[in-house]
Design goal:
The chain is 39% helix and 26% strand. With 239 residues, it is an alpha/beta fold. The protein has one domain (2-78, 116-238): Rossmann fold. The chain has a nine-stranded mixed sheet with strand order 1-2-3-5-4-6-7-8-9, with helices on both faces. α3 packs across α4. The chain is globular.
Length: 239
């Protein structure tokens, strides 16, 4: 892991960018004291510098956690994949035409999740060597990746998942193997995420402690208080 910049922010946080081989990432800390590590991931295709992700990360770090995110392959500062870009273009065309999109989503998101899991585990290996990061580890964000990562890596001790976005068949089949405490956020009127599919996924999770928070509104309408509830969720399970 090679740190490429460091900034002390107005709220007292330290924001550092890093590279890990070809993987770029960002780390937010309150200082050098060990704090529970939370991996924060956006739906693939959005960069780690996305304003909503940065805002969430800074608020969670200010609440006493170490927060890290990386750019997945083909997004942010990383080279674009021609196959993924073609699939995204076909997806946009199909959505405009009102055509079925499940198979296009599958061809796009399935490989992205499969490729992202080993990169996040590599990042986790490196992050846990830092004095600012401690286990147990939490995960927050992209549902498909969160499922796959929670199944693959026993260091993930709690997960907060956003129900927006397509979840590939492989991750729907993995859902019963997710055993960690779970907070599942659902926007009731999410235009890009069929409500019943999200409810079925929640029902399939194997966690003995799982909580569903559903709010009225579309994909970008998650109330700000859900982040505060998320921080309390992680405080219960990581400290």
């Amino acid at each position: 892991m090679h740190f490429t910049s460091e900034h002390r922010l107005d709220d007292g946080l330290v924001e550092r960018t890093f590279t890990l081989g070809e993987i770029p990432g960002t780390l937010w800390t309150t200082g050098s004291a060990p704090a529970p590590l939370i991996l924060m991931a956006h739906n693939n295709g959005l960069p780690r510098t996305d304003a909503r992700l940065v805002a969430r990360a800074r608020l969670t770090a200010a609440n006493g956690c170490t927060v890290a995110t990386i750019d997945a392959a083909g997004c942010g500062d990383r080279p674009r994949s021609p196959a993924a870009e073609q699939a995204r273009a076909e997806l946009r065309r199909a959505m405009r035409a009102g055509e079925p999109t499940d198979e296009i989503f599958e061809s796009l998101v399935g490989p992205l999740v499969a490729n992202a899991v080993p990169e996040w585990r590599t990042a986790l290996d490196a992050l846990l060597t830092l004095p600012e990061a401690a286990g147990p580890v939490g995960y927050s964000g992209w549902t498909a990746l969160g499922i796959a990562l929670a199944v693959a890596d026993p260091r993930i001790a709690a997960a907060g998942l956003f129900a927006g976005g397509y979840v590939p068949r492989a991750q729907r089949e993995q859902a019963p193997m997710v055993r960690v405490p779970l907070l599942f956020l659902l926007q009731w009127d999410d235009e890009g995420n069929p409500r019943q599919r999200a409810l079925d996924l929640f029902d399939a999770f194997g966690s003995e402690q799982k909580t569903l928070h559903a709010n009225l509104g579309g994909h970008l309408g998650t109330p700000s208080f859900e982040r505060e509830d998320g921080d309390r969720f992680f405080a219960r399970h990581l400290r």
